[in-house]
Amino acid sequence: MTVSLKLAWRYMSGRGLRSALTTLAVVFGVMLIFGLNGVTPSLVEAFTKGLLSTAGKIDLSVTSAYNQPFTPDILEKVARVPGVAVATPEVQKSVPLPPLDGVATSQQVQSVNVIGVDPGTVALVREFPLSAGRPLAVGDASVVVLASDLAARLKVALGDSLVLPSSVGSTRFTVVGLMSSATLPGAEQVFVPLAESQQLFALGARLTVVEASLRAGADRAAVEADVRAAVGADYTVGGLSTNSSLLASLQVSTFAFDMFGIFALATAGFIILNSFRTVVAERRRDIGMLRAIGTPRRTITAMFLIESVLQGVVGTALGILAGWGMAAGLMALLGPVFESVVHIKVPPVTFPASAWVLSIVLGIGVTVLAALVPARAAGRVTPMEAMRPQLGEVYARTVGRRAWIGLGLMVVSLFGLTAGTSLSVGLGAVVFLIGAAMAAPAAINPIADAFGHLLEATFAREGAIARSNLQRNPGRSGITVTAVMLGLASIVALLGVVQAIFAGFAGYIDRSLSADYMVIPQSIVLGQGNVAAGPRLAADVRHVAGIGPVSTLRLAQGRVNGADVQFLGIDPATYPQVAAFEWNTPSSDAAIGQLAGGRWLIANGIFASQHNLTIGEQVRVDTPNGQRTYVVAGIGNDYLNAKLATVYVSQANLASDFGVTADLLVMADRLPSADPEAVLAAMRKVVAEYPAFKLYESAQWRSEQLGIFDQTMVIFYGLVAALAIPSLLALLNTLAVSVLGRRREIGMLRAVGATRRQVRRMVLAESLLLSIIGTVFGVLVGLWLGYALVTSMSAVGWPMPYIFPWGGVMATVVVGIGFGALAAFIPARSAARLNVVEALHQE
Amino acid sequence: MAIVETSDLRKTYGEGATAVQALDGVDLQVQPGEFVAVMGPSGCGKSTLLNMLGGLDAPTSGSVRVDGADLTALTDDRLTELRRRRIGFIFQFFNLIPVLSAVENAALPLVLDGAKDAQATAAEWLTNVGLKDRLANRPDQLSGGEQQRVAVARALSTQPALVLADEPTGNLDSKAATDIAGLLGQVAREWGRSVLMVTHDPRIASFADRLVLMKDGRIVDDVHLDGSVDAARLAMEKSGLL
Predict the structure, then answer these.
(1) What pLDDT is recorded for position B150?
(2) Contact predicate A33/A323, CB 8 Å
(3) Quick check: A288 contacting B, CB < 8 Å?
(4) Which residues of A213-245 are buried (b: 16+ CB within 10 A; e: fewer)?
């Protein structure tokens, strides 16, 4: 053990550059895993904190499972449950605010949560630490209480008026109380009397939330169960953070981030494998001598394993440090985006225990695992090696068998990719990459031949030597190509996915919401908490001169087989005039017409695949008014709702079965003959009366949304670039080794008359060949993997069109070949500067 | 008792038409403290013989006994142990670990064997071979002759019964080669080890007590040398190998 440790340490420190390059690969992998695992939990924490901070002393919240307002008898039911001390009725709705003049975009309060409370009982559940004014009192009308910091941002003081948007336009509230509590961004709240809020949102006597506090000493779980039994299955009892689409998309990004990290570490693993293989090859004679003088095999194996542990530990430690820096940097980048788009204050980076465990286990584990094969091979070196005057062919010619195993793995991985869960997709992707890595070396000779001829056309003699160098050592070439391939394949695949998301996003704007004008609540992308408009808004729009067809969308929540489904109400007569479905064959626009003739529905792709629906099938739907049976008229998608299980029904059915008559979104087309300027001005005038809504022209909306999207894409591209670095290291490493290993040969070439320039070119040509082969494989594998990821993500409920990533492929080719030239720079120079006499005297 | 004892030692490489008979019935004995040189044209089997004696390669048939142990009957672990404790190796290319100092290289077999005073013993042997002032130097800071002296010290550090030298002077200049050959003579005569040296150079072989001449896998002559510079060359001429 001590000998192994000593030798490992001496070799490592004596070969500083090599060790550093290998370790750097681990650093990058760990950096990505650790850093990214620090980012997402911080965001999730910010998000849940934002939600929970609204809770106060509330022990229990009861909301509708359908996201619908409900009648006050639920309040009675909750209050009667033993163990419940107080139950208080509330209305909670998020309303967007129009931007204030003279306030920076990042400082704008884009929306507030209007909380209608019962002044008589709310004080028993919520705290109102007042700094000025008075609390809400029984009998109050249009008054509001809010935190003083929020008031300052809204530029209102005690006694001022605050205008809140509503379904009938807007309502003025007088500020009567200011609270000292600090407002977390994303949790801006204003408190108004319950009756006032019911009027504001046209709810009648209905509520959206019942908040309750428990008696001291009550069994929380038992009370929760009793409340659940009392209110029935149509209600959700518990935390406020459940069922959030933002939380879901954060989980999706955690998965995507983990994929980045796994790809990076897989690449690092191959670099380490490569590095240790070359190291074992280099030290073959040393190992032979050690065996000859009586070193047991296990001591030799231990020596390499210890070396890998040392590098793993150092690499992981540095990786964690770099990951911390990366997370901090990412948060600095992400912060403004998140604050402006989803109103979440991004906290300082924190790392959960799992991030540490994952990084340390994977960082050291991958290093040791990758070194295991070469280390065992080292143990098998015969003592005879010490006697050989020349280093022999050191790589076993098992290329053919490995290629078959690799192909087999690639086939097996298809099951994972198509199995339909994100875990199996991730696993399938990794298995596919391993398979590709095993199969790649078999194709080196043919490809080296093909590209070698191309190179030879450029610099004839050096190209031929470079090609034969590669083909003579297929093992080493194979592993370099593999490392480059892995790095680039993951880049191409991820770019493919990113582009698909982007295209899906742009496509939804283009196809689904093709109307010339749209009147949309400002926070529609969030999917929740939108304020809906009464019928007046659509009517007003219809009356604008120059406006042609107008159609609206309405939203309700329902359940099918116990699963939440969103129901969109469309007007079968006007919808096709301003919008469109992407139909799954054999469905067609005729289905829209069918909606008008009874309980027919159009299912979107996710919903149809979840319930295995075909046209003509009956679907039993739980609605707030009881169970109803609908018949499937067609299956089609609009991209707005591509992420969620969605059903389209007629607005008439939405009204009778769900009780929803308010419009969520108004779409309108301009008459061809109308003057665009005049129509726009008239539309602006109408929408100005509805502060919760914003008027968009299609082009403007599209560019605004794409702008927000672009900001987040920058981060993705940054990550993709970070992934490319390990490939560069792999190339550099292999080339350096290949030059060092051939000093005598290079010396001989120089001795028989090769110029420095020719030697430089030879090394450059070899590097270019390796990188071209790696790039070709990387692009092919990456394209396929990207396609598989996109289609499988579609299968798990995130439909997006596959777009061939032309830009990504071009960039990857440029980067791959550029890296080849870059990586050759130092080795080529040192090869050219080699002292001929010294080189020839080397063993 | 002889330190080395082979009987009807045979080694065949390959099969069928491409088979090569590297050793074809070699009977050899080496006594304690004897310095034996093995010579012969390339491919005569002398390196193969050395590998068999060192337990690096297994014979096709016949037996090899070193220091009383039958090498063909030993497991890999026991062979490894035997090499570590009873056999010292000296290679043409020195084969020192480049990242270890002279004394660390010389101490390697002792350290591997778990000996307590490895460094001190190694330093003692390095002093014996004339490298008292070079203990802390790494191989790349030593001349070829000095590197080979480190290898000799390494081979002797475990007090082996047998020292095997494979072309120990093949990579040295004439002066250094003579010095190393002299040192090997000292190893046998003063320190009492049996030394078996393979060489191409008759001048170097003349330092040995005894010359074994090989051809086509057989011993063709086995002569005692008188210590004169021409002894080996004359013996080769007599056997028709020159």
Answers:
(1) 94
(2) yes
(3) yes
(4) bbeeebeeeebbebbbebbeeebbbeebbeebe
Angle of helix A353-379 versus helix A245-282 axis, rounded to 10: 20
Q: What is the CA angle A309-A312-A318, rounded to 5? A: 140
What is the token pair recorded at A326?
């990366």
Which tokens sit at A119? 């002044």
ipTM for the predicted complex: 0.78
Contact assignment for B54 to A290 by CB distance below 8 Å? no
Give chain A's mean pLDDT: 76
Judged by CB atoms closer than 8 Å, whether chains meet at B99 and A295 is answered as no
The whole-angstrom separation of Cα A617 and Cα A664 is 29
Distance from CA of B46 to the nearest CA of A (A): 12
Among candidates A14, A290, A384 on the partner chain, residue whose Cβ is nearest the Cβ of B98: A14
Q: Using an 8 Å Cβ cutoff, are B92 and A389 in contact?
A: yes
Strand partners, A237: A62
Residue in A2, A295, A384 nearest the CB of B56: A384
Mutate to test the interface with A, among B91, B113, B157, B172 (most CBs of A within 10 A): B91
CB of B169 within 8 A of CB of B199? yes
Please report the DSSP string for B47-101 in residue order.
Answer: HHHHHHHTTSS--SEEEEEETTEEGGG--HHHHHHHHHHHEEEE-TT----TTS-
Helix pair angle (A698-740, A16-52), 10° resolution? 150
Identify whether the C-beta of residue B35 lies closer than 8 Å to the C-beta of residue B197: yes
Task: Determine the Cα–Cα distance for residues A600 and A591; give it in Å rounded to an integer.
Answer: 9
pLDDT digits (tens, 9 = 90+) for A374-389: 888 888 888 877 666 5
- Residues B99 and B223: their CA atoms lie apart, in Å, by 42
A491 Cα to chain B: minimum distance (Å)? 39
Three-state SS at B224: strand
pLDDT at position A393 is 44
Within an 8 Å CB–CB cutoff, is residue B83 touching chain A? Answer: yes
B60-B66-B70-B76 Cα dihedral, nearest 10 degrees: -80
| Helix, strand or coil, per DSSP, at residue A663 | strand
Does A840 touch chain B if contact means CB atoms closer than 8 Å?
A: no
For A395, list phi and psi in degrees, rounded to 5: -95, 130
Question: Reduced to 3 states, what is the DSSP secondary structure of residue A313?
Answer: helix
- A299 in contact with chain B, both atoms CB, cutoff 8 A: yes
Q: What is the mean pLDDT of residues A436-451?
A: 75
| Contact residues on chain A for B80, CB-CB shorter than 8 A | 291, 294-297
Instruction: Convert the pLDDT of each residue in A2-53 to its tens digit.
Output: 778 888 888 888 777 777 877 887 787 788 778 877 776 666 665 555 444 4
Q: Exposure string (b/e) for B152-169, b if CB count within 10 Å is 16 or more?
A: bbbbbbbebbbbbbbbbb
Count CB neighbours of A453 within 10 A.
12
In chain A, which residues have their Cβ closer than 8 Å to the Cβ of B57? 384
Distance CA A446, CA A384 (A): 34
Q: Using CA coordinates, name the residue in chain B closest to A285.
A: B95
Is this structure's pTM higher than 0.80? no
Q: Above 80 in pLDDT, residue B8?
A: yes
User: Residue A217 contacts by C-beta under 8 Å, 6 or more apart in sequence?
Assistant: none
Span between the terminal Cα atoms of chain A, in Å = 30
